[in-house]
Each structure stands twice: as C-alpha cells, then as structure tokens.
Amino acid sequence: MVGTLVYLVEIQKPELTQAQKAELDQLILSEAAIKSHVWNHSNLSIGIIKEQIADRNAFARSLCEKFDATGARGVAIDVVDVLKLQKSGGEDWDVIGYARCRVK
User: Fold this and answer.
1) Tens digits of per-residue pLDDT, 46-98?
2) DSSP class of 15
3) Helix 18-29 with 56-70: angle, nearest 10 deg
4) Exposed, middle or buried: residue 99 (CB in 10 Å: 0-12, 13-18, 19+)?
5) pTM for this predicted structure
6) Is residue 60 within a helix (H) or strand (E), and if so which, with residue range?
7) Could you give the CA distance from residue 35 to residue 29 in angstroms, rounded to a whole number?
8) Hey, how many other C-beta atoms are within 10 angstroms of the C-beta on 43?
9) pLDDT exceeds cutoff 70 at 11
10) Measured at the alpha carbon of residue 61, what is the angle toward residues 58 and 65, in degrees to the nearest 5?
11) What is the pLDDT of residue 13?
12) From CA 8, how far away is CA 6, in angstroms rounded?
C-alpha cells in the first residue's frame, strides 16, 4: 500500500525541465499582482498582497490555465500573503489560495 501511494504521488508531481521553469518564470513575471515566487520542484509558491486579489483560488486556477497552455503539467500553486511573510522574517507562510494544475 505504501509503495502504491509513493508511486501515485510521484506520477502526480512530475519534475519540470529547466526550459519549462524558465518559460513559466516569464509568465509569472508578467503578472503584476505577483510580488515574489519560489519553486520547490513542481510546487510553486507565489506571494501576493492579500487585499489586491479577492478570490485567490481563482487567481491560482487562472495561472494553471496559462501553465497548461505551455504544456507544463502537475504544478501545485500555493498563494501566500507576501506582507505577512515579510513581517515574520520568512517564517509565516500563510497560504491564502491554492490550485493544482492538470496532471496529464
């Protein structure tokens, strides 16, 4: 059972190539609402000012749609409150939105 779970997690979180990450980084940088971003394999955390975006899940889903158009698959996006993160010295990752992009 544990082996099956590990296998499912691995196929649902594929690695992105450096070229794909570079293309996605350009897409991210074109979004004025995103103040910072950090990659951890296929997981992406984006920092926004919470008050500027009412529906953070919808914002993350819209990024997924753009990522899907590039052919990138399996990205998980956390939306974090960048001001709270800065005030805490990087300790308080308040996840205020989330989306899981298409796997295949």
Assistant:
1) 999 999 999 999 999 999 999 999 888 889 999 999 999 889 888 888 899 99
2) P
3) 130
4) buried
5) 0.81
6) helix 56-70
7) 9
8) 13
9) no
10) 135
11) 52
12) 5
